[in-house]
Design a protein that fits this description.
Type-4 uracil-DNA glycosylase, six-stranded mixed beta sheet, hydrolase, Uracil-DNA_glycosylase-like, alpha/beta, 299 residues, DNA damage, single chain
Length: 299
């Protein structure tokens, strides 16, 4: 077993993030600790200052103050608050940007970018989507735009959010093997996600969140100018193709996808996570990969 003192600060931070994502609240110690007994013993110590403060307040309370709690007779007027008394602080609430304004702001920020580098900067500085508030990282498209090949997934998962890269963790390893089977490598193509921020609990993004993110992913495609698109997962296929079909009805067919001034051929297939959950579907994914390779070979 590797001891904690043998890990670097970066490795310790990664380990803590892993435990947090796994829902670990307590670390194992050498001897058992009765947390219930600790809590029961600490209760009197916590309540003592509160009781002392209440006793002191009653002793210093003036008669006029005590009479303020007596119900007033009918017809009597309630006295005004003492001058100089502090008013109750107003409750401040975070006002979210209306969806329509957020979509317009996203469209303006995306269209203003003239390169992928500018678009990444604009996306990292954009604050109109609530998903960014709970995500650790903004996941931007990475890879070689000159390849003419772009693979797009739905949204980052916990591994992607932690690493700050698309298709990390087990799904990324499986995708690497899938690409290698048809002669492609991660570093030689473009990889990205429809949504750049991980939704809390990996929940599906709302329609408003999808509308806000749409200008950015479409601009990424327009600036990268790929010749072939591989769309992975049910969510991604519906996002670009429309409709309510499942990935099993949308996969295996070349369809046109519009992104800015471009109209590109796109093929949908199963996401690596879907293959990890249902390994029997790998044969379907292999058929799609062969179709994708044949399209690339046509030039």
């Amino acid at each position: 077993m590797i001891a904690a003192q043998d890990l670097s600060p970066a490795e310790l931070a990664a380990l803590l993030h892993f435990h947090a994502d796994a829902g670990v609240d307590w670390l194992l110690e050498e001897a058992p600790v009765d947390r219930f007994a600790e809590f029961a013993a600490a209760r009197p110590a916590r309540s003592a200052p509160v009781q002392a403060a209440a006793t002191s307040a009653r002793q210093t309370e003036r008669p006029a103050d005590r009479g303020a709690d007596v119900p007033q007779r009918q017809g009597a007027t309630r006295s005004a608050p003492a001058r100089g008394a502090p008013a109750s602080p107003a409750v401040q609430q975070n006002v979210a940007m209306p969806d329509e304004q957020a979509v317009a702001a996203a469209r303006f920020a995306a269209e203003s970018a003239r390169s992928l580098a500018e678009l990444k900067t604009a996306l990292e500085g954009f604050s109109g989507c609530n998903l960014k508030n709970s995500a650790r990282n903004t996941i931007f498209t990475e890879g070689d735009a000159s390849s003419g090949i772009m693979v797009i997934g739905p949204m980052p998962d916990a591994d992607d959010d932690r690493e700050g890269l698309p298709f990390a963790g087990k799904t990324g390893l499986l995708l690497d093997r899938m690409l290698a089977a048809i002669g492609l490598e991660r570093s030689t193509i473009m990889l990205g996600n429809v949504v750049p921020w991980r939704p809390p609990g990996n929940r599906p993004p709302t329609q408003a969140e999808m509308d806000i993110c749409r200008p950015f992913i479409e601009r990424q495609i327009a600036l990268a100018e790929p010749k072939h698109l591989l769309l992975l997962g049910n969510f991604t296929a519906r996002f670009f193709f429309g409709g309510t079909g499942t990935i099993h009805t949308l996969r295996g067919q070349w369809r046109d996808v519009a992104a800015g001034h471009l109209v590109l051929p796109a093929l949908a297939s199963l996401h690596p996570q879907e293959l990890l959950n249902a390994p029997a579907s790998k044969s379907l994914a292999w058929q799609d990969l062969l179709m994708f390779r044949a399209k690339i070979a046509e030039g």
